[in-house]
Design brief:
The chain has 301 residues and is an alpha+beta fold. The chain contains 9 helices and 10 strands. Among the domains are: 43 residues, no CATH class; 130 residues, Nucleotidyltransferase, domain 5, CATH 3.30.420. The longest helix is centred in the N-terminal third of the chain and has 19 residues.
């Protein structure tokens, strides 16, 4: 059991002292510090939220399973007297995806010998102030064995600095496990892969990893990452919240990455998630994986 301490004086002499009655979150335990006489409730990831954590995570799961914000709101009003406004669902995802990211982005990955990297072009409708259509890219790297998305980013371009950022993140997670990286024929990839995954210090002309280039015009495809892109396009084509500022798009796509890696069972992995294989040291015990990911991200564990 977690040892309680007073948020005001850090005292350890804590006792229960009544309940806080809320309108939508039921009863919340209050505590009393005998040292400084301070009354408080536990500061959790859902502190001062008006809706229950089960409802918040349920809305997140329905959204990434394929429902729009408005359809989720229409669905909930049939079962909850007051319902939930669609903008509240959007704000909940914007709040909790970065919290989950604090946990998921800090995990070392047990990868196979080969990664696949690629990018998806998006023509995103800009905000009302900016107007027009923006050509942007979702850049990602996937592990061939576990189907785990090792690193990704939604960016305004696919220049060398942008690619470097994604591949440095992948290198940080997989270390020296990878021997082959497969990409398409984009001219920036050779330099980026050599720079981020390094050279053999005893033979500077030979890189530590083999860069395998597969060009679509020659009939070749990186099938596993292209299959993931099909899943991604199917979901994002109806994401209305995807349009607007780029920060919104980045957060929504990072949430989909978490859903794909940690929540959704992969058909080719015999009812396992990619994280079950890629991060075997972390086993999520709660059936509500969204809730446990939020709690772990908030507590830094």
């Amino acid at each position: 059991m977690q040892e309680l301490s007073c948020p005001k004086c850090s005292g350890k002499e804590i006792t229960k002292r009544g309940l806080r009655i809320t309108e939508s979150r039921e009863k919340i335990q209050k505590y009393f510090c005998k040292t400084c006489k301070h009354r408080f409730v536990l500061d959790t990831a859902f502190f001062r939220m008006r809706n229950k954590e089960q409802l918040i995570t349920q809305c997140t799961d329905m959204y990434y399973s394929g429902m729009s914000f408005r359809k989720i709101a229409d669905h909930l009003v049939r079962f909850f007297p007051k319902g939930v406004h669609y903008s509240t669902i959007y704000r909940g995802i914007m709040k909790y995806v970065p919290i989950m990211q604090n946990f998921t982005e800090n995990q070392n990955i047990t990868s196979g010998y080969m990664l696949q990297g690629d990018e998806v072009e998006y023509k995103r409708r800009a905000s009302a102030k900016q107007r027009g259509v923006r050509e942007e890219y979702f850049i990602d790297i996937i592990d061939m064995d576990s189907r785990y998305i090792v690193a990704s980013d939604y960016a305004k371009d696919r220049t060398t600095p942008t690619l470097n950022k994604v591949y440095r993140n992948a290198k940080r997670k997989v270390g020296n496990q990878v021997k082959v990286i497969s990409t398409d024929g984009l001219v920036g990839y050779p330099r980026v892969i050599k720079k981020t995954f390094g050279y053999n210090p005893h033979a500077t002309r030979n890189p530590k990893v083999i860069h395998q280039v597969i060009k679509s015009d020659s009939g070749g495809f990186n099938y596993k990452i292209e299959r993931f892109h099909n899943t991604l396009r199917e979901r994002t084509k109806v994401m209305r919240g995807f349009h607007g500022c780029i920060t919104s798009a980045q957060t929504l796509l990072k949430g989909f990455e978490i859903y794909y890696n940690w929540v959704r069972n992969h058909q080719s992995l015999e009812s396992s998630t990619p994280s079950d294989i890629a991060v075997p040291t972390i086993q999520l015990e709660n059936k509500n994986r969204w809730l446990e990911l939020i709690q772990r991200g908030y507590n830094g564990k």
